[in-house]
Amino acid sequence: MVDQILLAEDLTRRLSTKVIGREVLSYNVVDSTNSIAFALAEGGIREGVVVFAEEQTKGRGRLRRTWVSPRSKGIYCSLILRPAIRPDKAALITLLASVSCAETIRKVTGLRAQIRWPNDILIDNKKVCGILTEMQTTDTKLNFIILGIGINVNTPRSKLPLGASSLREEIKTREKFSRLELARELLRRLDQDYAYFKQHKSQKKLITQWNNLSALSGKRVKVSLAHKTIEGLAQDIDAQGALIVRLDNGFKQHVMAGDVVKVR
Ligand code: BT5
Question: What's the pLDDT score for residue 175?
Fold first, then answer.
């Protein structure tokens, strides 16, 4: 069976979002939707434009890692955002996107999607979605943020790295999911959550939502940092989005950047 193609006209038809997806560009094959969106943003394109692709030949994760993006199996998209925030607040956008993605997956599939700090969405401990936030700044000013989202929708596990899965694999039906329905729901949810973010100074609600969806709270974790690895009990994230790890000596470390390498 031929997979349905995600077309801009289908993605935007009666979408009725205010900002996110008011313009959508759908590509066939690209190196990375984040690279396309970055170039468009540098050219001055307005916020809310979203770039989709059927396939990425150089889909990327953080720290030069690869994002496996088989043709027409997943959702690969990048949003251009221009929030009036300082660069040191940009991590909040990743938190927002994690909540929007997890809630959308829950709503559309009924599966219990959870967030693994900092940017993974898991189902039954397997990664089904990743988020890559990139930005351009000048001095202390944030020019734009590119929010890249990859979701494994109908991807067979055989095409994915170890520890990854897709919505279709997890729901265990033979039917394919509609990427179109999921993508439209995601744009709507992101639009709502981003509007709320821009209207409110305090991001307490976002932090609470995030913590309620966390896969790590109370679990013993190993976190790899730039130059060392720490181990302890994962707690909530703080108001900046740092993961609080309670070390065995009782000291609480707030980790702003790193990777969770082991959970028990
Ligand atoms: C991420 O990085 O999880 C961010 C992924 C963002 C992908 C989107 S797709 C649209 C947009 N355009 C892009 O080029 N990127 C964004 P990170 O946390 O660094 O995780 C990367 C790691 O996840 C890899 O090293 C693999 O171990 C694993 N991985 C790779 N492809 C995967 C996939 N399709 N599903 C699950 N895990 C994957």
Answer: 79
Q: Is 236 exposed, middle or buried (0-12, 13-18, 19+ CB in 10 A)?
A: middle
Give 158's DSSP letter: G
Cα of 207 from ligand 1 centre, angstroms: 23
Tokens 């690869």 -> residue: 66
Instruction: Answer whether 189's CB lies under 8 Å from 92's CB.
Output: no
Tell me the C-alpha distance between 67 and 141, whole Å: 29
Q: Is the overall model pTM greater than 0.90, yes or no?
A: yes
- Res 3: pLDDT: 64
Quote the longest CA-to-CA distance of the chain: 57
Q: What tokens does 191 get? A: 């639009």
CA of 204 to the centre of ligand 1 (A): 28
Pocket test for ligand 1, best of 55, 67, 146 (most atoms within 8 A of CB): 67
According to DSSP, residue 82 is labeled -
Ligand 1 binding pocket includes 258 (Cβ within 6 Å): no
